Amino acid sequence: MANNYLTKERYEELKNELLDLKSKGRQSVGEKLRHAKELGDLSENAEYQAVKEEQGLLEKRIADLEDLLENSSIISKSSGGDTVKVGSNVSLKKNGSETVSYTLVGSSEADPAKGFISNASPLGNSLLGKKVGDSVTVETPRGKVEYTLVKIG
To answer: Are the C-beta atoms of residues 115 and 132 closer than 8 Å to each other?
Structure first.
């Protein structure tokens, strides 16, 4: 699996979620299973089937989180530097006029509406290694957009 990039804060959030699911989540599902078993014939017990499905989803989420955390690199938010890298905060001129700012993060943390773009996105990937003054053109659903790197910091 490809390496994932996470900020320390996001890594801690996911680690806490994993611990919570392994303790409280499993305990809750276990109690629901015990209750459902008390209702009788398991082959016709809809509540039991629903709890088994919930248990499967819980275990899948636990496995996904374990895999993500195991295969992640923690990035630090960059406060400058000569070139753009994962963790960099960048200011860009969009099509020569509007200024936009983003932080490059790993794909599991991306949220463009909040200013976090993935290093694997077309824009994020094209910015990696660029210096202030460099321009990149990105193909979007609305056509090509040119970005000029104004600031790293």
So the answer is: no
pTM for the full model? 0.72
Among candidates 101, 108, 109, which has minimal Cα distance to 127?
101
Q: Any idea what the Cα angle at residue 19 is, between residues 16 and 23, rounded to 5°?
A: 140
pLDDT in tens, 98-151: 999 999 999 888 999 999 999 999 999 999 999 999 999 999 888 999 999 999
CATH code assigned at 103? 3.10.50.30
Boundaries of domain holding 104: 76-152
Q: Which of 19, 42, 74 is the last residue of a domain?
A: 74
Count of structural domains within the chain: 2
